[in-house]
Amino acid sequence: MRTDATFLGTVHRVVGAQVDVVLSPTELPSNSPIVDGRVYRLGQIGSFVRIPIGFLNVYGIVSQVGSVPADTTEEAQIAFRGQKTLQVQLVGEAYRNEPFNRGLSTYPTLDDEVHVVTHEDLARIYAPSARSCVIIGVHSASESLPANLDLDKLVTRHSAILGSTGSGKSNTVAAILKALTSGSHPNAQIIVIDPHGEYHTAFGGISKVFRIDDPAGLSQVLGVPGGWGGIQVGK
Length: 235
Hints:
Layout: E1 7-15, E2 18-23, E3 34-35, E4 38-39, E5 48-53, E6 56-65, H1 74-80, E7 85-95, E8 101-102, E9 113-116, H2 119-125, E10 133-139, E11 142-150, H3 151-156, H4 169-180, E12 190-193, E13 207-211, E14 229-233
């Protein structure tokens, strides 16, 4: 409802999975409303919004804030002028308390309400999708919400961890390896090809380091600072 503390505004335009939202100038009480004891920042890039359609909740991610969409007509730009707007990319849906599903079966229409998601919504969106999940950290959107990784999909498919220099790729790999070799998978063993010798210090006590050019073959060498080699992680 528009009187809810989570209310943001209404749908102004729908183009496929892209939705333009006009923020309410009157019902929006604050840019940082408190809902069930938690403070939420409204309209943050990358944050989720919820669009209720009957018993169905459609979820989207904010991709643009406070700017008239570039591909609108002159008449539409005039209509947007002076209004605070969000551009949202729709990603999935959920019926009441049922699990979140990627993709859409129903699309919002003009004047549908748009709400900020709560912690309960985020828990549904990021809920583990399989029994084989491992926890590799917490979500930036909520420090009390664990970040899960589907182990079955990880080991049966090709995957990549991408990012610019200093963005945390090596830390992410280390977090995944630690999650795989602890908790409910204490006997897991992983072979890491480590040309730069980055990971041996992160797994002291549970790893063996080998060098291909060791004259004795793949003999154990601890604390190798570099060299073309590898690490066996696990007990």
